[in-house]
Design brief:
The complex is a heterodimer of chains A (197) and B (208). Chain A is built from nine helices and no strands. With 197 residues, chain A is mostly helical. Chain A has one domain (5-191). The longest helix of chain A has 30 residues, at 39-68. The radius of gyration of chain A is 18 Å and the shape is globular. Chain A starts with a helix and ends in a 9-residue tail after the last helix. Chain B is mainly α and 208 residues long. In chain B, strands 1-2 form a two-stranded antiparallel ribbon. In chain B, helix 5 (72-94) runs antiparallel to helix 6 (96-108). At the A-B interface, helix 3, helix 5, helix 7 and helix 9 of A face helix 3, helix 5, helix 6 and helix 9 of B.
């Protein structure tokens, strides 16, 4: 298996910017709106999320290629992938608590939230659907993580300012955040056509 | 809710309006924007959710005495994933054109917070039939939200409903672009909050 670095780089850029999961595919919105109120939580979430994403994509890829395809069990992929993610998050939670309590104290909260994030299940499903090889899946997962982090941090920095803005009462809170996300998404459409895969 | 038992009709109504998944609780938002660029897709996903939610609530409620509380999360996940697989395979066989567009989002139902939350909050503590009603109501609430959002988006963005052209002239292209989804949901949410405040004296529940 040769590694095509140009293709990998293109994959990272395209999944982070052009096909940004939040702004063009609308996944992970619950978390996106949930934790983007403060910069600090947004940064913590993006770091945890990217790590979990890469590892669980790797695990799912191995299981999919070496167990599910030979046994012709690909129709069970939803169950298996969600199982892998849930099991990994649970074990990461336990291990982190034992090995590094300070890190657990900082990032543990986000771990529990991650299982309900749609992106975490969408990435393995897409990897399987597009027949990416191992390195491509890794690049795709990494790019998606970076893209999600980017979206989260942009949103958080705007929402911190929004706290003091004078918003009409019915629009306070979520509705105005949605409109904000719409405007950012509009800006992100400017990236489309940057790279053709 | 377990404090005072509600009748089954009240449960359905509660799911549809009082605790509407999208406009009130603001969870399971991802597909509400992704697939609402046309009525057809929105309705297809809404119906799938009604099915999954009802069946999951029924199953969890049937099994509630046998599930050990410590391992309930993986069990709920597996039950949900099972039903999602059923609907995924059914759609892939019988509704091929729609599946091509929204297949990924059907599979994503597995990570829906609303389904999981209802299993945890309601079905694991209540009788089978009322759990089914609760799930059905919640699903209908979701379906309703999908219909409302996709109605506006398709009408404004393409000048059509269910793919049938209704209004002539140049449509607002932005409404069917990704960005338009966010805008539509934000505006509708604000609108429902306004109605709630103006006519029912509410506080605008979806403001977090």
């Amino acid at each position: 298996m040769t590694i095509d670095f140009v293709k990998l780089f293109q994959l990272i850029v395209s999944s982070a910017l052009i096909n940004n999961f939040v702004f063009t595919m609308f996944l992970g919105l619950c978390i996106f709106f949930g934790v983007s109120k403060k910069m600090e939580t947004a940064v913590g979430m993006s770091i945890t999320f990217t790590m979990v994403m890469v590892v669980s994509a790797a695990l799912s890829w191995v299981v999919y290629q070496f167990i599910m395809i030979p046994l012709q069990l690909t129709f069970l992929k939803i169950i298996v992938f969600i199982g892998i993610v849930a099991a990994f998050v649970q074990s990461a939670d336990t291990i982190m608590k034992k090995v590094s309590p300070t890190m657990y104290y900082k990032l543990g909260v986000y771990l529990a939230l991650i299982t309900t994030n749609c992106i975490i299940i969408a990435v393995p499903l897409k990897n399987a659907g597009e027949h990416y090889n191992f390195f491509e899946s890794m690049a795709f997962a990494l790019g998606s993580g970076i893209g999600f982090g980017l979206a989260l941090i942009i949103m958080a920095s705007i929402r911190e300012k929004l706290e003091v803005a004078d918003v009409p009462r019915p629009f306070k809170g979520l509705p105005i955040s949605f409109i904000l996300a719409g405007l950012i998404a509009l800006a992100f459409t400017g990236f489309s056509g940057l790279i053709k895969l | 809710m377990s404090l005072k038992p509600k009748s089954n009709i009240e449960l359905i109504k509660n799911g549809m309006f009082g605790e509407n998944t999208i406009f009130r609780m603001a969870i399971s938002l991802c597909p509400s924007i992704a697939v609402t660029n046309g009525m057809k897709n929105g309705v297809a996903l809404g119906i799938s959710v009604v099915f999954v939610q009802t069946m999951v609530n029924m199953t969890i409620s049937l099994m509630r005495k046998f599930i050990h509380p410590k391992i309930r999360i993986p069990i709920f996940m597996l039950v949900i994933a099972g039903y999602v697989t059923i609907i995924d395979l059914l759609m892939a066989t019988y509704a091929r054109p729609i599946y091509k567009e929204i297949g990924l989002y059907i599979q994503i139902i597995v990570a829906f917070a609303s389904i999981f939350a209802r299993a945890e909050v309601f079905a694991s503590k209540n009788k089978v039939f009322s759990s089914m009603c609760d799930g059905f109501g919640m699903g209908l609430g979701f379906l309703l939200a999908m219909i409302v959002i996709s109605f506006f988006r398709e009408l404004l963005g393409k000048g059509a409903l269910f793919g049938i052209p209704i209004v002539s002239g140049s449509p607002l292209l932005i409404m069917i672009l990704p960005a338009g989804g966010f805008l539509a949901v934000g505006l509708l949410m604000g609108f429902f909050n306004w109605i709630d405040m103006r006519f029912f004296g509410g506080k605008g529940a979806s403001g977090v």
